[in-house]
Amino acid sequence: MMITEQEIRTLSKKNARRSAFKTILYLMLLCSAITFSVITTNDFVYFLSVVILGIVIAHGVELQHECLHHNLYRSIKVNRFFGIIYGLPMLVSYTHYQAQHLHHHTFLGTDKDEEIIDYKSEQLKTISGLFTRITNANRFFQFMVTMINTTQGVYPEVIKSKRQQRKFRHEYYFIFFFILILIFLYQVWGVNILFTWFFAWFFISEPLHFFIEVTEHIGKDKSNRVISENTRSYKTNLIWSYISNHNNYHIEHHSYPNVCAHNLKIVNEKKSGEYYTENSYIEAMKNVISGIRNEKSAEDKVIAKVAKQD
User: Fold this and answer.
1) What is the pLDDT of residues 8-62, one digit of tens each?
2) Beta strands in the chain (DSSP E)
3) CB 261 within 8 A of CB 13
């Protein structure tokens, strides 16, 4: 079933009330989790607060993703403002994520495809590699190196214009200032928010973000430019779909990147479910694991290619 251009335009219209609800709910849950973690003396309440905080932080990056496509708010400036806020707890620069992610959309199915937080099959084949990617253990180191590089005038390849570089630099400094504030609060007033943030980020947010995004392309044919062949969509429950900001409709997103996240389900329905490649998240993960096991390493591919030419 075809979707008309008029239908796509309708599905791409921003819903101010829905967007405001998403932002208010995010901020309420974030502030509530932080408050309870700071004031409670009960270990279970503290643990629960950290878990909720971690889930909210990971959800924020998914909202940041919607902002960088300018799909959450009508204003480009408002999208950037909230996009910066959403990515702050996970040290993700809005401008960096936007440039790299749009690069991913452009070069999906080619050797040039690369995400800002990229999950490659060869990195997930060992226990140490899997742990590193699930926790994104080197994220803080990468952040610091990137920020220091900006002081030398060195930027990622996707950051090209002077305007982009200025935004990129300011956002990295802003994130670093956020970390300094947490350290200050801990050192001066003894507020444990520094450790609360770290535990929520490292042990909850990063693993959750991994399990949200690892299903997008791994196990699919990444060398194929046809979106339905290199990308995955799957059925899931309302809670997981909301936490991931409807990331389970990933074929739909790549096919119609201007469509608002909450309307991707409608795209799927209009296409009579033909975009689904798996019937559940568990089935999707099984195919991801199978893809990791079966995909040849980059070195093996080169060897095979040379052997074929000979």
Assistant:
1) 999 999 999 999 999 999 999 999 999 999 899 999 999 999 999 999 999 999 9
2) none
3) no
DSSP annotation string for 54-123: HHHHHHHHHHHHHHHTT-S-S-HHHHHHHHHHHHGGGT--HHHHHHHHHHHHHHTTSTT---SS---GGG
β-partners of residue 234 are: 278
- Rounded to an integer, what distance in angstroms lies between the CA atom of residue 72 and that of residue 184? 33
Average pLDDT over residues 94-121: 88
Q: Strand, helix or coil at 10?
A: helix
pTM for the full predicted model: 0.90
Residue at token pair 């967007």: 19
Q: How far apart are CA 57 and CA 30, in angstroms?
A: 8
In whole angstroms, give the CA distance from residue 91 to residue 209: 13
**CB under 8 Å to 140, separation ≥6 — which residues?**
91
Q: How far is CA 275 from each of CA 127, 221, 224, 265, 268, rounded to the nearest angstrom?
A: 33, 15, 16, 11, 6
